[in-house]
Design brief:
This protein has a 4-stranded antiparallel β-sheet with strand order 3-4-5-6, with no helix packed on it. A 4-stranded antiparallel β-sheet has the order 7-8-9-10, with no helix packed on it. The longest helix has 4 residues, at 194-197. It has 1 helix and 21 strands. 1% of the residues lie in helices and 36% in strands. It is an all-beta fold. The protein is globular and about 70 Å long.
Length: 332
């Protein structure tokens, strides 16, 4: 509740996802810096809540004022991206922790605005809004610009950006396109969309955005984009003439079939470490495909059995990316 003195964090509950009732006060914030402890939410924290099935706890993201311990005097940002978590699966009877930093802050000219997290392929991904509220033109972002940055986390609490200065949805001034300074208005669950469950190559991503700078007149509304399956982040060979090899750590083989999602202008081939029957030479090149099975041919030019002989064990894989190729994802 912004405007309270001090401001505080409340939990809202809804049966339909549309109408919410304020149910429980989670914590009371402070107005200004707290020299002895990390503060509660003293700003209008855009609270987004996720449930971590591994720990059976709820995790909420919000914006806090900085403390003297986290930022040197005179250099601290106005906002620190934080998380708070419940003590158990019942969000009403649980106690909620004091907010802790997510690790996404860097400077006064690169501050968080919101954080929308969702589960995807056994990881946590998030769209983290970052913006520059200052007039410092040497900062990572131009003054007043807001970016929708893709972030990832293994535990849903500690986060890193993938390309900290690249907006996932581009903002082109004067083009009429949407930027993303209000992405906190959109919740995501890509793996539960009908398109994803049908196995389609793309699925929709909905967000709320504004077609103007963060400070100044702007028009806001809902946006919709199509995202390639697994195409949030990938390995890209930027060389114009040379192929690039990428070796990964040994991976458990569950199905015996290696499937890859490939994009870009080049092909991808795969070899199995220590197995000459599954080399780059015997691998059928894969181009612009979504979850297609990797095929190795035998000396008689017939399709082999793939990784079935390794089921229940682990294999080392090496991916060969032609110039311009993108390896979005693989799974066995």
């Amino acid at each position: 509740r912004k405007g309270e003195s001090p401001s505080s964090l409340w939990l809202g509950v809804s049966n339909d996802g549309v109408s919410f009732n304020v149910t429980k006060q989670l914590s009371s914030g402070t107005n200004g810096k707290t020299p002895t402890s990390f503060p509660g939410p003293s700003l209008d924290g855009h609270m987004n809540v996720i449930f971590d099935e591994v720990t059976q706890r709820w995790i909420g993201f919000l914006r806090c004022a900085p403390s003297a311990q986290t930022w040197p005097e005179g250099r601290e940002p106005d906002r620190v991206q934080c998380y708070t978590e419940s003590s158990g699966a019942n969000y009403l009877t649980s106690t909620w922790s004091l907010p802790r930093p997510t690790g996404l802050n860097t400077s006064f000219g690169y501050q968080p605005d919101s954080h929308v997290a969702f589960r995807y392929a056994n990881l946590w991904l998030a769209f983290t809004n970052t913006f520059n509220p200052s007039q410092n033109k040497s900062a990572a972002l131009p003054p007043g610009q807001s970016n929708m940055v893709l972030s990832w986390s293994a535990d849903g609490r500690h986060w890193e950006t993938i390309e900290p200065n690249e907006s996932f949805i581009k903002f082109v001034p004067g083009s009429g396109q949407w930027d993303c300074c209000s992405v906190f208005g959109a919740k995501q669950d890509p793996e539960n969309t009908p398109e994803f469950e049908r196995g389609e190559a793309t699925f929709p991503l909905f967000y709320a955005g504004c077609n103007g700078r963060f400070f100044g007149p702007r028009a806001c509304g809902l946006g919709r984009v199509s995202v390639g399956r697994h195409a949030f982040a990938g390995l890209y060979n930027q060389h114009r003439t040379e192929a690039t090899e990428v070796e990964i750590a040994p991976t458990f083989v569950s199905t015996g079939k290696l499937k890859v999602t490939v994009g870009g202008s080049g092909a991808v081939r795969v070899s199995v470490v220590g197995d000459s029957s599954m080399s780059f030479h015997r691998c059928t090149p894969i181009r612009n495909a979504t979850e297609v099975e990797v095929v190795w041919t035998t000396a008689l030019e017939v399709q082999g059995d793939g990784l079935h002989a390794y089921r229940g064990g682990a294999v080392g894989l090496v991916f060969l990316l032609d110039p311009g190729a993108v390896l979005w994802a693989f799974h066995i």
